[in-house]
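Input record, target 12 of the design panel.
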């Protein structure tokens, strides 16, 4: 038994002023984070914001250039082995062998974690069943769909149930059905008692899964709160409009700004514009607001081709929370 100073009454994660510098670039610029035990914590931000770097530091895969942290009560610098034994990272790093079947992969991981062959087999069977992968379990992983692969990645991280699971963008690129399946898995993992830190680029995902959310932008935490608190700052949704005539856009913008008292954004498409609706009050209020806006547009004789009501996008959330769009940082902008 290794001796360490773990204090189980402490939060799962306590990080203060984490800094990571790559060359001239401050990938993390003073991250403070507290994650309670048993919580699903959402770490929301655009490409290149610093989510993966934060996870890598907290999982002891990378050393910070500044700041301190305790993970599951263990000191990040002095007790790296103790942390490693209790956390699991899935997402961008899952070490699955593409030539082996899903079943074989899980059994090998079980052996690596010290399970007997029989125990490893049982655990693999249980996880494959729980993750709806019994069917493809006998096929090489190289032929799995994105959704199957992602579910197997998560299963791989749970061979020995960790106390803290880092899920790095578990649903990026998945279709809505696969995304829903992964959400269900995350809920199951959390219900079983594992603390989950989940990174995501989707506001809706953080809203669905996380009790507490931190928004990261350019290496800094720019907002934090429960989903309801953030939503009340972001607004209840966005109204997207397509006009019949692009020449009417300036008029439509003025009418909408007056009618809804909101920020109207012009899209690159000259026929399109959108407006963030004010803070949520209820579905009926949203309907009334939209109706009011439509009446005003009709009075101003603005022709509408299409109208959709959506959740605020990450861009819109960032605009509301930070005053600027969630633009990826310079290194991630494609040439
Ligand atoms: P993504 O959604 O793209 O994974 P992220 O929020 O996880 O984004 P990070 O991967 O943490 O962001 O990257 C943060 C910043 O640090 C980016 O500008 C990235 O280019 C840079 N970066 C990350 N790892 C390295 C590295 N090993 N060397 C140099 N720069 C790096």
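The sequence produced for target 12 reads:
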């Amino acid at each position: 038994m290794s001796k360490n100073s773990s204090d189980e009454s402490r939060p799962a994660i306590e990080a203060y002023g984490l800094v990571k510098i790559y060359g001239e670039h401050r990938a993390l610029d003073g991250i403070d984070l507290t994650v309670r035990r048993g919580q699903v914590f959402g770490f929301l931000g655009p490409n290149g914001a610093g989510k993966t770097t934060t996870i890598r530091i907290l999982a002891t895969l990378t050393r910070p250039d500044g700041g301190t942290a305790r993970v599951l009560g263990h000191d990040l610098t002095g007790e790296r082995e103790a942390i490693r034994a209790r956390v699991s990272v899935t997402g961008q790093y899952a070490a699955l062998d593409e030539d082996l079947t899903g079943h074989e992969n899980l059994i090998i991981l079980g052996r690596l974690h010290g399970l007997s062959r029989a125990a490893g087999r049982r655990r693999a069977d249980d996880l494959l069943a729980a993750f709806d992968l019994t069917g493809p379990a006998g096929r090489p992983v190289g032929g799995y769909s994105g959704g199957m692969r992602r579910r197997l990645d998560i299963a791989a991280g749970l061979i020995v149930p960790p106390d803290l699971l880092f899920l790095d963008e578990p649903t990026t690129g998945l279709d809505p059905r696969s995304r829903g399946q992964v959400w269900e898995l995350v809920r199951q993992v959390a219900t079983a008692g594992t603390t989950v830190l989940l990174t995501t680029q989707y506001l809706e995902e953080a809203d669905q899964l996380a009790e507490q959310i931190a928004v990261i932008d350019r290496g800094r935490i720019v907002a934090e709160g429960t989903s309801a608190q953030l939503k009340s700052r972001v607004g209840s949704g966005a109204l997207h409009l397509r006009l019949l005539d692009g020449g009417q856009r300036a008029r439509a913008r003025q009418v909408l700004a007056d009618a809804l008292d909101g920020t109207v954004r012009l899209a690159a498409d000259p026929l399109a514009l959108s407006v963030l609706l004010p803070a949520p009050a209820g579905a009926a209020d949203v309907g009334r607001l939209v109706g009011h806006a439509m009446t005003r547009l009709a009075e101003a004789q603005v022709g509408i081709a299409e109208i959709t009501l959506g959740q605020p996008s990450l861009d819109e959330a960032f605009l509301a929370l930070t005053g600027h769009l969630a633009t990826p940082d310079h290194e991630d902008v494609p040439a």
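The domain at 236-311 is CATH 3.30.70.3400 (Alpha-Beta Plaits).
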